[in-house]
Amino acid sequence: MDKKYSIKDIAQLSGVSVATVSRVINDNGRFSEETRKKVLKVIKETGYQTNFSAKNLRMNKSFSVGILVPDISNYFFATVVQKIEKILFKCGYSTIICNTARDEDKELAYLKMLESKGIDGLIVISGAKAFDINKVSSSSKIPFICIDRKPKDKKNTIFIASDHYQGALDATDSLFNSGSKHPIIATHKHYSSSGADRLRGFKDSLEKHGLPFDTSRNQITLTTENTTIKMEKVLKSQPEIDGIFAINDTVAIEVLSALLKLGKSVPNDIKLIGFDDEPQDKHTYPTLSSVKQDTDRIAQVAVENLIGLINSTGITSESIIIPVELMPRDSTL
Amino acid sequence: MDKKYSIKDIAQLSGVSVATVSRVINDNGRFSEETRKKVLKVIKETGYQTNFSAKNLRMNKSFSVGILVPDISNYFFATVVQKIEKILFKCGYSTIICNTARDEDKELAYLKMLESKGIDGLIVISGAKAFDINKVSSSSKIPFICIDRKPKDKKNTIFIASDHYQGALDATDSLFNSGSKHPIIATHKHYSSSGADRLRGFKDSLEKHGLPFDTSRNQITLTTENTTIKMEKVLKSQPEIDGIFAINDTVAIEVLSALLKLGKSVPNDIKLIGFDDEPQDKHTYPTLSSVKQDTDRIAQVAVENLIGLINSTGITSESIIIPVELMPRDSTL
DNA sequence: TTGTATGCGTTATCAG
DNA sequence: CTGATAACGCATACAA
């Protein structure tokens, strides 16, 4: 009742050899229906459970994957991680979560740990710089895929991302469509490959509408602390500003709050749109327009590809772009 | 360059036995300073890394802990998980995350998997029912601690929670203090032990102010879909309502949005306060009063106690309550 | 101070 | 169809 059963115990209890038990458990090799029943019965009765440490050691496989994420309290990251974990579990893998806090040293330390644990695969989500697995250990060939973060070595890797460019283009277009003549983009200090793509989309929409992009006039960089002050200054020196594309919803909501404090009306004075379609967008006042990423599909594609990588030796190189969806609400009416 | 080194390789390369290498690595047993340097040098050069599967098998320890959480895209859960993971990593443990989605079957499946992997400990965060580890396997004695979720067997377990009762009491008091005469509580369908404590706090504040609690008059249950309709109905039949304590900030923000739609002014017509102090509270209009949980301390205490449990055989039973802090903002001015 | 030998629980190879 | 046994990489009791 209080002991942990091993395959050996099961063998003894059911009067067969350990080899046969292993065969039955893994449904591998041949054995009679009779022994199968016998063994399965004992397993049920004893509540036997595979010892994964042993199995891993023997098979050089761990049935677990690591996931590197900058900040799990971010809505988009949390949602993607959650969905990935769910699918992986269905496929028999467990997920080791690693919160890198955008710290390169931490990232390295995590990578080492994960390698030690013999993870079968790795998913890298976002982060400031291009991802270079060779920094950990040139010997290791852990299959990995990148989400929203370009790998350093573009060959031999899979890269998955939302169509940030198109989303930003659509978002900015929607500012114009709702009457804005002089939109700007609000970014924050963190720089990621997705952020760069969104900036490109903004620029191209601007130029499409006959406005040349100029960083000093069309872009503001905010930190959490200075939003209102900075906004006030900018709006004073450029009173023509009548639309803001925020690099994500967190920034958008800070901007919205600042605008209201400054007595500006959204969308009457200034149109506003964000990115990520966070749940609270529906509950701001006015409700916040945004661009929705297809996290279901991102997660699905990520896991499918990773498992493909794990099971096959053929190395692929691919860049997968997931479409996004514009979610117009009152802030761009 | 492309091989994975084992302790045996290191032994050969440095001209000692595997036992000595093991001793040096674990700084265990005695060996000369000279051999130490020799071995360490080879380890550096080769980039040797411990094979944890083997170590785990031998030591019957996995240096990993599981964490059961209902929904990681919830701000409070995400924050706590993130902080726990960070501290655990510093202590040499990796964290296997399990998103139970409040589903008991999933929880069971996860528990089995975690047991198979030989996790050293378990952290259970919230969830609807009391937690009963015996459902997995009567044989297993995995040390575990509960956060925000009462364990079934109160003996032999550690329970950590914010002072939900006091927080709710303070929150409701603050409604009265800002002039509310007839506050109600807004809950949602999920029921947890923390939710029950918050409800108790609300009731006691009511009675303290001379109002007997009556479910049909002082409590409304919302779902995400029906908030505005339900609010309208309630406010029509009970126009005296002038204060709302929402069971958490997500509910509070939905309520706030509904109230604005219904033409009610917050805080002039109705005072409002939530729970959890989510970041967006600072950016709603008006800013949302709330009760802040000390996630740093919760995480710290949780890890400390779990590691204590793992390393000692002495079983403890304890209930640890972490103080909360009232965060008054404009919605209760 | 160091080396030898054993076993942890599995799977896989090879006989039977 | 089934059984004995080697091997995975490591820590440790025991010998030297």
TrEMBL record, chains A, B:
> Known SMART domains for this protein?
HTH_LACI
Task: Recall the GO molecular function terms of this protein's record.
Answer: DNA-binding transcription factor activity; transcription cis-regulatory region binding
Decide whether keyword S-adenosyl-L-methionine is in the record: no
Report any Pfam family annotated for this entry. Answer: LacI
SUPFAM superfamilies, alphabetically?
Answer: lambda repressor-like DNA-binding domains, Periplasmic binding protein-like I
Q: InterPro entries in the record, alphabetically?
A: HTH_LacI, LacI/GalR-like_sensor, Lambda_DNA-bd_dom_sf, Peripla_BP_I
Q: Which residues form the HTH lacI-type domain?
A: 5-59
The UniProt keyword set, sorted, is: DNA-binding, Repressor, Transcription, Transcription regulation
Q: Which PROSITE patterns match?
A: HTH_LACI_1 (PS00356), HTH_LACI_2 (PS50932)
What superkingdom heads the lineage?
A: Bacteria
Which PANTHER family does the record associate with it? LACI-RELATED TRANSCRIPTIONAL REPRESSOR (PTHR30146), RIBOSE OPERON REPRESSOR (PTHR30146:SF95)
Indicate what this protein is called per its UniProt record: HTH lacI-type domain-containing protein
| The organism of origin for this protein | Companilactobacillus kimchiensis
